[in-house]
Each structure stands twice: as structure tokens, then as C-alpha cells.
Specification:
Length: about 325
């Protein structure tokens, strides 16, 4: 891939309100400022950028928009971040509030028990049936197990997460996520990545108190109550374009609580790859630009040892090359 690698992010704060940014090192450049400067320069010949107000708006037409973003980055590097052309549109990322890069996905699709180590730990603690055949990752006799998480539960990479009132078994699940840019219906795994704009760090925070319902044992898992509490999907801080993530199947997944490492896996351990999840899901429902896949967590979740998050705890979630999140657990004062 020619040109400088960059990240995309959504921020709030100086230099204005909510804005979409190109991130170079520790600096964010407002796309709504950088694009007009590039367009009106002698270099501005790569074609129009279809939107500047949000990353999600740029997904439709991503195949045309991404090359323009590359040209904008080259223009920024030539002019220099201190150029008057970018006045009012440049800030250090530490001075900004990181929002979820994709603010309003239509669907958040999650892969359940997609690492054998996680399958085994959930069987040991009774979160999966102990009777019947054990799943051992044999894909000839099974398919991906997907569930939906409510889009409104997204949070920023450094946002606080409130422990829901009366709940005591709040758990972590570090995961890599990918974002769809092109409508997809019945795509094959071999073609799935052509629909992916980029990858992110995320955490499928879970409420084990209600994930299995003692009052309705015959209904198995309560995915809504267990997974869709407010702010139970911190995401970001960056969307890294797929062109800069060629080895998404060889990335470490790491999570610590108060500095103690709890999860330390690798995407190479997936049972079902993101591509296979996209194939399976697109045969059930049409995928739309902005839809997200949270692709499954490795072993080491709190449920496995009966260790759960409490007020004041700090989770740090990192996917290799995609950025680290830091979320503190707080009391629910709503």
C-alpha cells in the first residue's frame, strides 16, 4: 500500500463539536477542514470526497473515498500541520473526547463462543450445557453462533461504564470488530473482506446476572439483558482502514483489569473467521454500510473464575495495532 498509513476517529471537543478526523500519530485533523483545503489546492484532483461530517457517511462510496483520504494525507504532510490551511482543524488527540468511531450502526452482530478456550471455560462454569456433544470447533457439523447487540449501547474508548442497578456480575470480553461499507447479501467468505472498510478494538461487556434467566430456565440465554445494557459496547478509539490491516488474523487480543492481565489471546485462534461470520450473517439478513461485527472473545473472561467488575475498576482493552481503550466502572446514578 502506497502512502502513509493513517487512522480515522470521531471526536468531540476542541476544535469544535463532534467531528470526523484523520489521525496521524498523536494529532487529529478535522476532515471538514482538511478536505476543502486539499480540494482547492493544485493537488486536489483525486475526485470528490462524498462526505466530511462523519466516518459513517463516508462508508457509502468507500472504494472512491478511501483514495481521496490517502491524497488528503499526502497533502497534509506536504503542507505541514502548522499550515494556515488547516487553522482551527488540528488538535492533539489527548485534548479531545474519543467517541465511538461509527456512531449509529444499523446492526451490531456478535459472535458467541468463538474461541475454544472460551467455549471450554463457559462449559466449566455452567454457562453452556454439559450434556450432549461438546463443541470442539468442528466446522463441518456447526455454524457461527451470532447474536445482536443494541446499537444504542456504544460508548467511547475512554468513557465510564455504569454498573446497572442491582447487578453484581459484570464481565469483560475483549474483541476485534470490523465495519461493513458495502451492502452485502449472500456473500461468500472468500469475497467478504471486499465489504469491510476497517477494523477496531471493542469490548462486549456482559451482565452475567441476567444472561441466563433463573426465572425462565427453559428459554436459555437472555442476550438482550445480558449484552445490551447502556454503554456495554465501548469501541475505538480508531477505525483502522482494512488496507492497513492486512493481517487481521494474526493480532493479539489483550485485556487487563486494574493492571492485571486477564485475557491474552490472538485472532489466529478464531473458530470462525470474520469472513465466515459475514458469509453466515449475510445469508440471514442484508448487511448495510455501518453495520459492525464484534468477532468473538478469547479465554479469560471473569465468569471463568467468578471474578467480576466492581465500581472503581479500570479495564484496558487492546487489539494489536488498532488502539487501546481504558474504561472505568462507576455507580449507576441515572
Amino acid at each position: 500500500m502506497n502512502g502513509t498509513e493513517f487512522k480515522l476517529a470521531t471526536y468531540a471537543g476542541n476544535p469544535g463539536g463532534e467531528f470526523a478526523a484523520i489521525v496521524l500519530g498523536d494529532t487529529a485533523i478535522d476532515i471538514a477542514v482538511a478536505y476543502p483545503a486539499y480540494r482547492d489546492s493544485p493537488r486536489g484532483k483525486a475526485g470528490p470526497l462524498t462526505a466530511t461530517n462523519s466516518i459513517q457517511s463516508m462508508l457509502e462510496g468507500w472504494d472512491a473515498n478511501f483514495p481521496v483520504l490517502q491524497e488528503i494525507v499526502a497533502f497534509i504532510e506536504k503542507e505541514g500541520l502548522g499550515s494556515d490551511r488547516f487553522k482551527g482543524g488540528v488538535a492533539k488527540i489527548d485534548s479531545l473526547r474519543a467517541l465511538a468511531p461509527i456512531r449509529h450502526p444499523g446492526k451490531i452482530l456478535n459472535a458467541a463462543q468463538n474461541f475454544q478456550e472460551h467455549v471450554d471455560e463457559m462449559i466449566r462454569v455452567g454457562m453452556s450445557p454439559v450434556t450432549g456433544p461438546n463443541f470442539t470447533g468442528d466446522k463441518t457439523t456447526s455454524r457461527p453462533y451470532m447474536f445482536l447487540k443494541a446499537p444504542g449501547v456504544l460508548a467511547g474508548a475512554y468513557d465510564d461504564i455504569a454498573i446497572p442497578r442491582g447487578m453484581t456480575k459484570i464481565d469483560w470480553e475483549a474483541e476485534i470488530a470490523c465495519v461493513i461499507w458495502k451492502k452485502a447479501r449472500r456473500v461468500t467468505a472468500a469475497n467478504a473482506l471486499s465489504h469491510v472498510a476497517g477494523f477496531m478494538t471493542t469490548n462486549d461487556v456482559s451482565c452475567r446476572d441476567v444472561q441466563t434467566r433463573p426465572d425462565r430456565p427453559g428459554l436459555k440465554s437472555d442476550w438482550f439483558g445480558g449484552k445490551s445494557q447502556d454503554r456495554f459496547a465501548p469501541t475505538g478509539p480508531f477505525l483502522v482502514p482494512a488496507a492497513f490491516t492486512p493481517n487481521h488474523m494474526k493480532r493479539f487480543i489483550r485485556l487487563s483489569v486494574n493492571g492485571e492481565v486477564k485475557q491474552n489471546g490472538n485472532t489466529s485462534q478464531f473458530i470462525y473467521t470474520p469472513e465466515e461470520q459475514i458469509e453466515y450473517s449475510s445469508n440471514i439478513v442484508t448487511l448495510d454500510p455501518g453495520d459492525m461485527f464484534m468477532c468473538g472473545t478469547c479465554g479469560g473472561v471473569g465468569m471463568g473464575t467468578g471474578t467480576f467488575l466492581k465500581v472503581g475498576d479500570v479495564m484496558e482493552t487492546e487489539i494489536e495495532g488498532l488502539g487501546k481503550m481504558r474504561n472505568r466502572l462507576v455507580e449507576d446514578r441515572s
